[in-house]
Amino acid sequence: MTSSRVTPLKPAAADPAGEATVNAGATNGRPVLQVEGVNKIYANGTVALKGADLTVRQGEFVSLLGPSGCGKSTLLRIMAGLGDVTSGTIKFWEQDYGVVGDKGRKLAFVFQNATLMPWARVRKNVRLPLDLEHQSGPETEQKIDQALAMVGLSGFDNSFPRELSGGMQMRASIARAMVTEPNLLLMDEPFGALDALTRAHLQDSLMEIHAQLGTTVIMITHDVDEAVLLSDRIVMMTNGPAATIGEILDVKLPRPRNRLALAEDADFIHYRQQVLEFLYDKQKNPQIEKKPTDPARKLQEVACKPASSQDDAAGDTGKAATGSNKTRAA
Asked: What is the pLDDT of residues 43-82, one digit of tens each?
C-alpha cells in the first residue's frame, strides 16, 4: 500500500528561533544534533562507545551502519535521552539541552517493533503523544487524519493492531511519530523484521515523507542497499567494544530516487561498494578471527552482546510514551 496524498503536516519543524527550512538532503543546514566526544562505559567496565563525534544538519537523512554489537543502538538511545553518556556532550541546535528546552529538542523514536498498544485502535495509538501533551479539538483530529493518510492508513483508524499486517503496524508506528511534527526522527532498524516487498514499500513511503516534510532522520540499518537508497550520509561504525565512528560516506545521488533506475546506476553501485569495503575489508569479521583465551576478555565479549530488541522496545516504549527524560513517544 502506498501513501496517500493529503494536505501535509507542517513542512518542516521550526527551530527555537522560529525559522522553518524545507531543504531535505541538504548538508549545509543548521546543525540539529551534535555528538561531541561521547564515551559510554557500563558499570562492569565494558567500553561501548569511545570518542564518537557526529553532526547532523537540518533536513538530512543519516543512516548508522555497522556490525552487530558496534554501539549503533547505544548511540541512538543516547541521542533520544534513553541513555546517559559517561563523558562528552549532546547538543541540540548548537546548544545544551538545558538552553533549548523540550521544544527545541522535540524528537520522536520509532523502535524495531511497532510497539503499539494492542488494546487500542489505530487512531488511539496515533493519538497517544498528542494526549500526553493534552492536545484536543478539531486541529488535533486533523493532525491524526493527516498522519494516517501520509503512511497510507486512511480507513484503518478503527482497526486493532492484531487486525493489521506487520508492515501496516509499522506504518501506524511511523504515523504516531510524525503526528508530533518532530524536529528529529530517530529510527532503530524499523524495517528489519519485514519481508522484502513490504520493506521496499515502506522505504518508498519514508522517502516521500522525508521529501514532503523535510524532517531530519537518523536511522539504524544493517541493509547496505537500504542505507544507500535512503541516505544523504552513511555513518559507518567500527567493531565493538570501544566502538566509534569509522568513516562517513556522502551519498550524492539526486532526489527523488527511484529504486529500479538506481539498480544499475554506476554511482549507486560505487557507493554500495564503498560501504562493503569498509564492512568487510577495513573491519575484519570477528567470527573468523581467533578467539581470545583471556577469561577477562571473554567476559567482556559476553557483556557486549545486545539484549533482545523486543525486550528493549517494550521497556523503552513506556519510558518514551510517558515523556520520561523529556523524550516524546514515537
From this structure: 999 999 999 999 999 999 999 999 888 899 999 999 998 8
Contact indicator for 190, 203 with CB cutoff of 8 Å: no
Among 224, 229, 216, 219, which residue's Cα sits nearest to residue 187?
A: 219
- C-alpha dihedral, 260 to 265 to 270 to 271, nearest 10°: -40
Name residue 295's amino acid.
P
Phi, psi (rounded to 5 degrees) for 152: 80, 30
Q: CA of 205: how far to CAs of 113, 167, 171, 211, 306, in Å?
A: 18, 11, 9, 10, 29
3-state SS of 67-82? CCCCCHHHHHHHHHCC
**Residue 53: which of 69, 29, 31 has the closest Cα?**
31
How far apart (Å, rounded) are the C-alpha atoms in residues 49 and 292? 21
CB 90 within 8 A of CB 37: no
Grid cell locating 222:
544493517
Boundaries of every domain in the chain = 31-326
- How are strands ordered across the β-sheet holding 87-92? 47-57, 31-41, 87-92
CATH topology of domain 31-326: Rossmann fold (3.40.50)
The residue length of the chain stands at 330
Quick: pLDDT tens for 278-312: 988 776 654 434 344 444 444 444 444 444 444 44
More confident residue, 203 or 15: 203
**DSSP conformational letter for 133:** T
